[in-house]
Amino acid sequence: MTLSPKSIQQGDRKLDIGELVDGLELDGILSADNANMTRSLVRKEDVQQKGALRVLGEKNWPHEKLPAQRINSSFLAGWLAEKLDMERFHIDPLKTDVGAVTAVMSYAYAQRFGVLPVVVTPSKIIVATAEPLHREWANEISRVNNKDIDYVMAAPEDIERYALEFYNLSKSVKGAEEHHGGGVS
């Protein structure tokens, strides 16, 4: 199976590292030697625990066409976003309404599915993901919040880092408001 916008419509599943490696090799980005080494060295348990983008990105292989460019998870997020006709999103904490995005779902839920709400409007929630084909969670979040869900691609490390920062900040603000009787702004 090749990665394409059609992939999104073909059921709910996690990314397959073999599919990513095949696509990178086909695009001339990953050498045949590095592709074969990745196929033989990657453990299924690591992919299940960390996700395909992170595991492949940790290899940090050189880009065949642009040797100064490394194939890390940030590069992979951009490459995959292009393949799937999605927006590549760089999370900017200074442009994020932390209170609004953390109200969409709990930290445990966001962590469980490796997603992070990044924009909330009156009619939709934009969610950053590193698993664009895995959407089992979306219907529940849409129903609970009575909003449509849109998806953007982000590097898994960014999602994890900013989720921790946003939810900790939100918790601190709520704690301060409770302590000071809601007078904190």
Written overview of the protein:
It is built from 10 helices and 6 strands. The protein has helices at 5-9, 17-26, 32-41, 44-50, 52-59, 73-83, 98-102, 107-113, 138-145, 156-179, and strands spanning 61-62, 70-71, 87-88, 115-120, 124-129, 148-153. A 4-stranded mixed β-sheet has the order 3-6-5-4. Strands 1-2 form a two-stranded antiparallel sheet. With 185 residues, the protein is an alpha/beta fold. It starts with a helix and ends in a 6-residue tail after the last helix. Helix 2 (17-26) packs antiparallel against helix 3 (32-41) and helix 5 crosses helix 6 (73-83). The longest helix has 24 residues, at 156-179.
Helix content: 40-55%
Strand order of the largest sheet: 3-6-5-4
Uncertain residue ranges: none
How much is the average pLDDT?
91
CA(first)-CA(last) distance:
51 Å
Taken as a percent bin, the fraction of beta residues is 5-15%
Q: What is the radius of gyration?
A: 18 Å
Q: What's the overall geometry?
A: elongated
Backbone structural class? alpha/beta
* Main β sheet profile: 4 strands, mixed
Find the count of extended strands (DSSP E, 2+ residues): 6
| Tally of contiguous helical segments | 10
- N-to-C order of helices and strands: HHHHHEEHEHHEEHEH
